[in-house]
Amino acid sequence: MKEGYFDDSSLKGIILPIMAIIVQKFGGSSVADPEKLKTVAERIAKRHHEGDRIVVVVSAMGKTTDNLMNLARQVHPNPPTQKLDLLLSTGELISVALLCMAIERFGCATEGLPGFMAGICTDNNHTQALIQKIDITRIFNALEENKVVIIAGFQGISLDRNITTLGRGGSDLTAMALASALKADKCEIYTDVKGVFTTDPHLIPTAKIIPTLAYEEMLEMAASGAKVMQSRAVEVAQRYKVPFEVRSTFSEERGTMIKEIEFKEGSVVSSAILDEQQAKITFFNVPDTPGVAATIFGALGEKKINVDMIVQNVSHGDFADMSFTVSIKDLDEAMTISKNICKDLGCSEVLANNTIAKIIIIGIGMMHHPGVAARMFKALSSAKINIQMISTSEIRIACLVDKAQGKRALEVVHKEFFE
Q: Are strands 21-26 and 186-191 parallel, antiparallel or unpaired?
């Protein structure tokens, strides 16, 4: 199975149960201490006693993964990735064992499984593994025995039989992949917030919960810096059409439902996002000849550096300037590559700017409502915020501004569309 392709060979001879299969994922903040674990356990047990078949994916407790990473760096400045995966995978195992114990106090039998015992097979790419296939036989057998199945998120086993991990937010991906493999009725993503908001409520207190989002909107939000979901997990959900809900662990209120939606009446923009983890790289006096852009972005792509906004100025004579944005975490490597290319192409210089921010609005309603971009630009102009770069798609408009004006830009844009 590549991510999003389910090899259902493990389903042969298996008749899936008529009653609902629900996949639930609980993040690190939901299981951060024994009291929270007990709350989660009670919630799971209640659902199980009501008749649902429950498969739970759990993350490591609180800051466990960060602490393990710090330990690794204390003994090796650049830990070998295979051994790092072996170490990091232990965090989720602690959560699995403790949650099983807590649930059994409420009269439910449990089955606790590391990723490899749950049949999650990946490629050999340590720390960023891709799921290749899932054998659900053991999970299904446990469900048939009326057990709650607790599975360690974020991990699997490689083709060469080593423990692997799926990258930051990988428990989301585990949950979505299992939901698609099990043909679950629903996937529920439990976290410490009430759902997906129109913007970060820590930055804008007037932010509102969004009742329903399209897969495309959630994917754009995840890719644009919103920390609610891992983008790879949303891709799998969209490809398999797995409906999922983001909701609070500590509340019975409904959260945000993400599903297939073609049109949202009356809803133009769903969310506004401030991304301050961006940097701009500019090539000055680039030769205006065919193949130059391919050379620059091909070299960056080979190193798996994602480029977002790209602007090339109108050519003056035989030369032009070209700017693009990358994630701050990739800036040093991107600049090393860019400086080498600058010499090869004969550009005058290449400079980086990490004092920028990106303001993004997202919504499938944009496709049917003209004038959205003009409203955004007018709101920024009224606040005397200069736009450095612009990029658009059918459901997304992004503006690059000075980082010092980033929060103010978010305030005025959010007010324009949501207040």
A: parallel
Single out the residue of 325, 357, 365 nearest to residue 217, CA to CA: 365
Listed residue (42, 46, 21) closest to 31, CA to CA: 42
Question: What is the side-by-side strand order in the sheet with 349-353?
Answer: 307-312, 319-327, 278-287, 349-353
Picking from 259, 275, 305, the residue at the C-terminal end of a domain is: 259
Return d(Cα 305, Cα 299) in angstroms, integer. Answer: 9
Q: Report strand pairing: 389-392 vs 349-353.
A: unpaired
Distance CA(99)–CA(106), nearest Å, equals: 11
Q: Give the model confidence (pLDDT) of 102-158 as tens digits.
A: 999 999 999 999 999 999 999 999 999 999 999 999 999 999 999 999 999 999 999
β-bridge partners, 212: 257
Q: How does pLDDT run across 347-401, given as a tens digit for each residue?
A: 999 999 999 999 999 999 888 888 999 999 999 999 999 999 999 988 999 999 9
Residue 265's pLDDT is 65
126 in helix, strand or coil? coil
Query: Is residue 368 located within the same domain as residue 229?
Result: no
Over pLDDT 90: what percentage of the chain? 82
Backbone angles phi, psi at 234, to 5 degrees: -65, -40
**What mean pLDDT do residues 230-239 have?**
92
- Which residues have CB under 8 Å from 356's CB, separation 6+? 278, 279, 280, 325, 388, 400, 401, 402, 403
Residues 6 or more apart whose Cβ sits within 8 Å of residue 189: 25, 27, 172, 175, 229, 244, 245, 246, 247
Q: Is 1 inside a domain boundary? A: no
Please count the structural domains in the chain.
2
Residues 96 and 58: their CA atoms lie apart, in Å, by 7
* Residue 150: its H or E element: strand 148-152
User: What is the value of pTM for the model shown?
Assistant: 0.86
pLDDT, residue 12, reads 52
Query: Could you tell me the residue range of the domain that residue 70 belongs to?
Result: 8-259
Domain boundary among 198, 226, 259: 259
Q: What is the CATH number of the domain that holds 407?
A: 3.30.2130.10
Which 3 state secondary structure label does DSSP give 365? Answer: helix
With vertex at residue 209, the alpha carbon angle to CA 203 and CA 212, rounded to the nearest 5 degrees, is 135
Domain assignment present for residue 310? The answer is yes
Cα 40 from Cα 42, distance rounded (Å): 5
Residues 277 and 311 in one domain: yes
